[in-house]
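Sequence in, structure out. Go.
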Amino acid sequence: MRGVPVGRLQNRNTGVLEAELRWNVTPRWALIGMRGAGRAWCENVGFSDASTAVSKGVGVRYLVARKLEL
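Output:
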């Protein structure tokens, strides 16, 4: 997940849900909003008892090469 430190979600089982919203202001410029949540659990710690890590952010994207969609 974006913005969550490496190793924060570690266990036998993990679940992650992420969403991204993109608004194309012009053919080359876009505004991005993102949000995600995840949990890690095992036999000792059930899914409902595990803590949830949440990430969110905003950004701007510029399309460098239109033909290559980069």
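Check: The radius of gyration is 17 Å. The longest strand covers residues 29-41.
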